[in-house]
Automatic annotation (TrEMBL):
GO cellular component terms listed in the entry, alphabetical order: mitochondrial inner membrane
Annotated family: Belongs to the complex I LYR family.
Subcellular location: Mitochondrion inner membrane
Record carries keyword Methyltransferase: no
Designated name of the protein: NADH dehydrogenase [ubiquinone] 1 beta subcomplex subunit 9
One record GO biological process: mitochondrial electron transport, NADH to ubiquinone
Superkingdom of the organism of origin: Eukaryota
Species per Swiss-Prot/TrEMBL record: Nephila pilipes
All copies of domain Complex 1 LYR protein, residue ranges: 19-78
Function field: Accessory subunit of the mitochondrial membrane respiratory chain NADH dehydrogenase (Complex I), that is believed to be not involved in catalysis. Complex I functions in the transfer of electrons from NADH to the respiratory chain. The immediate electron acceptor for the enzyme is believed to be ubiquinone.
């Protein structure tokens, strides 16, 4: 999951100022794409946006750079398109979560006759499961077994 989609308290890495500026630029560019249907009009506004970013690229004073970044974030928030484009398989997209990944444990409940159709696969699978259990027990120890049966 992209760190920009995570809530602030769940971020695990720090972003440099340059990464924050790049992120702002990309989001602003996507917002321009949402606003303009005509490709030429979008490209015109994209060039203007790039010029605005390039105008401040050589600022050495970090306080001023941070202030510009905060103003840019505020401006983007104020000018967000009311119906942003969503990629279909991204969160909020029309296909997000549509194809469900079937968990591996479902194969444990196959009937033996079904498993007999793929003997090599299930033999290798049982071997891998056993190796996984041994690795887990080596790392964490045997599971706790109580005296209450």
């Amino acid at each position: 999951m992209s760190s920009s989609l995570l809530p602030k308290h769940l971020h695990t890495t720090l972003k440099s100022h340059a990464q924050k500026v790049c992120s702002l630029y990309k989001r602003a560019l996507r917002n321009e794409m949402d606003k303009y249907d005509d490709r030429w009009l979008y490209r015109y506004h994209a060039v203007l946006l790039r010029a605005r970013f390039d105008k401040h690229k050589d600022i050495k004073d970090l306080r001023k750079a941070k202030m510009l970044l905060e103003e840019g974030e505020k401006e983007l928030k104020e000018n967000l398109h009311y119906q942003p484009l969503k990629f279909s398989y991204s969160p909020g997209g029309i296909n997000y979560g549509r194809s469900v990944e079937i968990p591996d444990w479902v194969l444990d409940f196959w009937h033996p006759l079904e498993k007999a159709r793929y003997p090599e696969y299930f033999a290798r699978r049982e071997l891998r499961k056993q190796e996984y259990i041994e690795r887990w027990e080596k790392k964490y120890g045997k599971p706790y077994e109580s005296d209450h049966h």
